[in-house]
Write a structure and sequence with these properties.
Blueprint lengths: L12 E6 L5 E5 L2 E5 L6 E4 L14 E6 L5 E7 L4 E7 L4 E4 L10 E6 L5 E5 L2 E5 L9 E3 L2 E4 L6 E6 L6 E6 L4 E5 L5 E5 L6 E8 L4 E8 L1
Antiparallel strand pairs: 1-2, 2-3, 3-4, 5-6, 6-7, 7-8, 9-10, 10-11, 12-13, 13-14, 14-17, 15-16, 15-18, 18-19
Length: 217
Amino acid sequence: PYDTSNGLLSQYVTALLIDNQDNKWVGTSSGMSVLDASNTSFTQHTRMYIMPPPDTLNPVVDIAMDSHGRIWTAIYVGYLAVGGVSMWDGNQWIDFDVSDGLVGPNIKGLAIDSQDNIWVATSTGVSKISAIPSAVSAIKNNGFDLFPNPSNDKIYITNENQKIQQLKIYNNLGALVYENNSNQLHYSIDMSPFSKGLYYVNFLSFDAILTKKIMVN
């Protein structure tokens, strides 16, 4: 048996998932304990979703895995009425909450469909997080150049062939978060006010409409 005496974060286990490498993701009232494939050691994740300071507790409600092997978890703290969804991409946690468009903070469960859309059940309705690509890299296509990607602060967008007539940025839930109609060859956009996560950049030029993805860390 496994409990707090040999590695679990908490005796109160709320969810369990076994990934493609036979790691066991154990959701508890205090966070996530991951038991390795050999069943000998745990890795702990206690801050998957960032709570308002000074709180750090991350009680796990549910766990799911998409077709890329990424782990999704639902977090909710009842006494704060704060919660959201976080994704482990293999290196870091990326979270989504009402500020990104989720219908409510009280997450009840997760389901992932055949297209890798994430369906989030809450006490106030259901939200869908559109499928996230398995990797996001530097973008250069049809003369459009967008860098750096991922980004921590500013991104630079250029088109070596013609001016970009319109530029729009949407968050992962489809909400418009930025718009510029300056009709320029070059744009510099400060992404630091935006929450971390995936964004969609829509370009409109004279003869092309393109949508590219960028990750904000």
